[in-house]
Design brief:
The chain is mainly β and 536 residues long. Helices cover 4% and strands 46% of the residues. Among the domains are: 6-114, no CATH class; 291-354, OB fold (Dihydrolipoamide Acetyltransferase, E2P) (Beta Barrel); 359-439, Copper binding periplasmic protein CusF (OB fold (Dihydrolipoamide Acetyltransferase, E2P)); 446-526, OB fold (Dihydrolipoamide Acetyltransferase, E2P), CATH 2.40.50. Residues 33-42 have a biased composition (Polar residues).
Length: 536
């Protein structure tokens, strides 16, 4: 799976420029006690936003900064709300924020709600061969995708004895089942994780214990018989007389396609026994004049009626005036902004869709500029994290907080540190860095992926102004097109400017300023639409 990042279809520069930010896994305390009072006749506008937390110093969601006051109610997993309880939230948690937009353009949060999407034991891990921190695993029959933007809790530790943590450490073969709590964006077969947390327990779903149920949010694929069970992807949940069915749901064939949340116990035969079934998300009805924003997978668009259309985003259904422009983007991650009217119908103001994250670098730091908040790698690539970048220090001690504000992250760096950074090129060809991390689990050499610039056929090509020299590569295995070995002649015959190419050097000597001189153990690959994943 390729990582994708949103790119604005309607410029949001003015709005985004006003947002402060940073990425910190350790939320700061609120800076004020009470909401701002407005002067004059400009009443605050109600705003509701849903999406993953990308930073703290207040809360950052969807490129906006929301001030958290002592009066802000923070509700976690359906428990009673806590005033000013920002410390209960973590980087990557997908939240719903009810707030007010003040006349000066700032946002104050009235309520922040977080509820995990999946909870249970990890099975069937499929780690990426080149980067086992990426990949997927199953939890209660749901496929959980871990990509470059997923935040993995620092509570996870090495269990297989290789001195680093990656997805292979989640295998039950290494000391028993690992129980996790996952937050993210719901897909047809599971979830794209924005955060994965470790649950300190050895088992779950004990019928004799309250509060330890496994949990799943997803679309009902099948109702068995007359309501004896429901199926969500690979999980079957038995419905009994003791099952509490909420939100006026009826366990019948009409439930197929409905987005639900199921809490269940596990019986002695390993069957899932539904304890509670309810709607998986609030359905979209806002107040007159309320601004709304949501980031998630666009599941469905129904334009069959003339006046009012319907869309489903991450399990939530909204009535929309004219959703025809969204039809081409069904199945993609999208960010939608709009305004509700008095009928609870949403008028689309603007939307953003995803483009591929087409830049990735793994290298050693050559120099650091704290004045500009940037560093330069040995290859000469300048990396400047922004306030919306997720920055992580993988060298931090457990519990020290591996996610930081960019300025604090830059202050920790040292020359010769190993770093990994990902991003995408904007409309001006500049790289927007989305995630940057300092790491110890990187071997010798360096790698770079980017759109191709100038080409010297049979000899070299450019990536981000770095000349990649290929004459030293082995034939044919040093040259690939979509994971297929081709040799130099076919590789260069297919290569064109703008193609995404990944170059890997296996020795430190190959990584120099402005040049990657590849030896026999190096490789270059033209990425294709059929590639299954990112390895950088």
């Amino acid at each position: 799976m390729k990582l994708t990042l949103r790119a604005s279809m309607i410029a949001l520069a003015a709005a985004l420029a006003a947002c402060g930010g940073g990425s910190s896994d350790d939320p700061a305390d609120p800076t004020r006690d009470t909401p701002n009072q407005q002067s004059g006749g400009n009443a605050p506008q109600k705003v509701t936003v849903e999406g993953p937390i990308t930073g703290f110093g207040s809360i950052h969601v969807g490129g906006k900064k929301f001030e958290v006051l002592n009066s802000t109610i923070v509700q976690v997993e359906g428990q009673n709300g806590v005033g000013g309880g920002q410390s209960l939230l973590k980087l990557g948690h997908r939240v719903r924020i009810e707030a007010r937009r003040l006349a000066n353009g700032t946002y104050e949060a009235d309520e922040v709600e977080y509820d995990e999407d999946i909870r249970g034991p990890v099975v069937r891990i499929d780690a990426d061969a080149d980067d086992p921190l990426l990949g997927s695993f199953k939890v209660v029959g749901q496929n959980v995708v871990v990509d470059e933007l997923t935040v993995l809790s620092e509570d996870f530790t090495d269990r297989n004895g290789d001195n680093v943590f990656d997805l292979t450490d989640l295998s039950p073969a290494h000391g028993g089942a690992v129980f996790v709590e996952v937050s993210g964006t719901v897909t047809a077969d599971g979830l794209i994780a924005s955060r994965v947390d470790l649950l300190e327990r050895q088992e779950a779903g004990d019928p004799d214990e309250d509060g330890d149920e496994i949990e799943v949010k997803g679309f009902v694929d099948e109702v068995i018989g007359n309501g004896e069970a429901i199926v969500i992807n690979e999980a079957r949940f038995e419905v009994t007389a003791a099952t509490e069915v909420k939100d006026d749901l009826v366990i019948s064939q009409n439930l197929v396609g409905t987005f639900v949340e199921v809490k269940a116990d596990i019986d002695e035969n390993d069957n899932y026994i539904a304890v509670e079934i309810e709607l998986g998300a609030e359905q979209g009805f806002g107040e007159d004049g309320e601004a709304f924003e949501i980031e998630g997978i666009l599941d469905r668009v129904d334009t069959s009626t003339l006046d009012i259309h319907a869309i489903v985003v991450s399990g939530q259904t909204f009535e929309v005036y004219d959703a025809s422009a969204l039809v081409p983007f069904v199945g993609q991650r999208i960010e939608i902004e709009g305004t509700f009217d008095g009928r609870g119908v949403l008028t689309l103001d603007e939307f953003e869709v995803e483009v591929e994250n087409n830049v990735a670098i793994v290298d050693e730091i050559a120099s650091i500029d704290t004045g500009t908040g940037s560093f330069t790698t040995r290859l000469g690539v300048v990396v400047t994290p922004t306030e919306d970048s997720r920055v992580q220090d993988k060298l931090a001690q457990q519990g020290a907080g591996r996610s930081l504000k960019p300025v604090d992250f830059i202050a920790r760096l040292q020359v010769m540190d190993k770093v990994r950074a990902m991003g995408y090129t904007d409309e001006n060809g500049e790289v927007v860095w989305t995630k940057v991390s300092r790491r110890r689990d990187i071997g010798e050499g360096c790698s770079l992926k980017a759109p191709v610039g100038a080409i010297n056929s049979g000899v070299s090509f450019e990536l981000l102004d770095v000349t990649v020299e290929t004459t030293g590569l082995s034939e044919p295995d040093g040259f690939e097109i979509g994971d297929v070995e081709t040799g130099s002649a076919e590789f260069y015959a297919m290569l064109a400017e703008g193609d995404e190419v990944k170059a890997k050097a296996k020795t430190e000597a190959a990584c120099t300023s402005g040049a990657m001189v590849l030896g026999a153990e190096g490789s270059v690959e033209i990425e294709t639409d059929d590639d299954e994943g990112e390895s950088d």
